[in-house]
Amino acid sequence: MALIVRADLNLSAGKTAVQCAHAAVQCALEARRKHARLMERWRRTGARKICLVAENLASLHRLASEAQNANLPYHLVQDAGHTEVAPGTITVLGIGPAPRRSLDLITEDLSTL
Amino acid sequence: MGFRSFIHHLTAPRSKAKPVRGNVKLVCIVNQSLKMGKGKVAAQVGHASVESFLRTGRTHPHFLEAWLSSGQKKICLKAKDDVAFEELIACAQEANIPFHMVRDAGHTQIPSGSKTVLALGPYLEDELDGITGELKLL
Description:
The structure holds two protein chains of two kinds. Helix content of chain A is 46%, strand content 20%. The mean pLDDT of chain A is 94. Chain A is of the alpha+beta class. The longest helix of chain A has 22 residues, at 13-34. The model of chain B has no long low-confidence stretch (mean pLDDT 91). Chain B contains five helices and five strands. By secondary structure, chain B is α+β, with helices and mostly antiparallel strands. Chain B is 43% helix and 22% strand. Chain B has a single domain (25-137), classed as Bit1. A five-stranded mixed sheet of chain B has the order 3-4-1-2-5, with helices on both faces. The interface between A and B is medium-sized, with 28 and 29 residues.
């Protein structure tokens, strides 16, 4: 599972962590419904997660549409805006759990957080 | 309410689960002594949240329902070291609060088996605050 954070928002460490957790939970919920076997395999093998950075909102949307085209589970986290950012701001994109090769195709240009 | 759901409302068996009163949240507590990078912390908090909510779904399903339908409130706190985790886990067990302790596989940054993040809940906000009240926000 890849968790892709927007670099232009400059979120604090705690906020970043919580937003990534939102993405991870939503992706896991969706994967459990639609890709149950993949989900089980992912959890058994250590539930691998990686945090990456993308430049801005446009890059998140571009990555999300790539994930959609590849038929991978994904979720864009929209913050309620109680703290740090304005309500409705999209903060993190979660993709997966998905086979490593198909995820790497989409995320290979991104650097880790 | 549509006609069918109205009929369903009248005839469906009553759910055994007691409705949850009060706010429900998930708390993640990060071990500060490991000095993990920002991305590492985020991934570990992700591990903790996913495992803890799945467990809550098995043991306290009505709390999970309440949490999912109320915006999935999450909060991230910090603890000094893993000794603090022992106390928190003891409190959680006593109060029957679902929790998950993340032990890292140690592929990056830190040694294998390190206790990185403790997740408590989703559970009643007031009860969680009673346990984690002294901890600071991350």
